[in-house]
Amino acid sequence: MRIMTSSSRRCKAQSAFEFMFIFGALLGALITGFWFSWSKSMEAKRFSTELQVDELLNAVSEKINTAWLEGRGFSTNLTIPFTVSDREYSLNLSSNYIYLTLGDTVYMKPLITQNVTGSFTMGAVNGLTNMGDYILIS
Asked: Does the chain have fewer CB atoms within 10 Å around its N or its C terminus?
């Protein structure tokens, strides 16, 4: 009987070791899969934010450029959203560039004129008027 008990213990120990090994391997695969999906999710979110920023900068620069090219007296409206990707941001004009600051990141887009006066109001309709020598944002 003593021989059976020893063999039985050995079998149980080996089964426990195999179970722990398989469990560890599955846990490692699960953690790797979770990390991979999380990194892809963050990448998709970053891409979505950059796409929204690019769309906004294109819309604003196109409106300003159109107002400048149309000449004196031309006016148009531009609606600026309050947030981009559910985050607050700021729009600034300097020289012939428009800058969008979102957190620690600054995006920029060139304009064909550097003569733009005024500031944007977020979450509102902004008027753009060509005054002849400059574009007025009201």
From this structure: N
- Give the tokens for residue 116: 């733009």
**Among candidates 77, 81, 71, 73, which has minimal Cα distance to 113?**
71
E strand or H helix that includes residue 116 = strand 116-117
Per-residue pLDDT reduced to its tens digit, 84-133: 999 999 999 998 999 999 999 999 999 999 899 999 999 999 999 999 99
What are the backbone angles phi and psi of residue 60, rounded to the nearest 5°? Answer: -65, -45
The SS3 assignment for 87 reads strand
Helix ranges (DSSP H) in the chain? 2-70
In which domain, by residue range, is 52 found?
Answer: 2-137
Q: How many domains does the chain have?
A: 1
Tell which residue, 49, 57, 45, has the closest CA to residue 90. 57
Hey, how many other C-beta atoms are within 10 angstroms of the C-beta on 41?
A: 10
**Rounded-to-integer distance, Cα 16 and Cα 18, Å:** 5
Length of the chain as a residue count? 138
Q: Which residues fall within 8 angstroms of residue 96, CB to CB, at 6 or more apart? A: 110, 111, 112, 113, 114
